Amino acid sequence: MKNVKTNDLVKVSFFVAIIVLLAATPFLGYIPLGFTRATIIHIPVIIGSILLGPFYGAFLGFVFGLTSLINNTFNPTVTSFVFTPFYSIGTSSGNFWSLVICFVPRILVGVVPYYLYKGMKKIKNNDVLALSVAGVGGSLTNTLLVMNGIYLFFGQSYAQAKNVGFSTLYGVILTVIGINGVPEAIVAGILTTAICKVLLKYTNRALLS
Fold it and tell me: Where is the signal peptide (predicted)?
């Protein structure tokens, strides 16, 4: 039991190192698109959730959120106030809800994929299908919760920062989901399936040996 726990902690440390490396590498973890940032940092969180369970997955999601907070505080875009209470632009400033948007969706990225994977395995014992659904679902958890949280808590300020009317803001939100969120989800589904199939096979062999 002690060896298993130590092994899990080593794996968590490995995933934390990947998350930090991606976040610290320009144009890799956070990809600037001018009006927003795309990301692939959710992928190691999703994989960690499936391999290590929701507790460690939630911790990895917290690390993901922490890198977002740091990045948006010290390397801000015009809409960074929605992710950090320590940044403001004009009359728009971050607050407590910035922390909610920054951390809650990312923590859930480390929880939801585990249950999607386990649930799909019970419905149909097919690793490729279960891993694909977990990868896509984990990515969409981040995108949908973040973008809808922005609309709910910072609608007026976000519309002002993007120079659009509030009445058309949700259309802008849907556009961002379509342009960023859907490709991110597809990539997450593919990479989660490819990487987890190998890691799960290795893990199962290690447990049997």
Answer: none
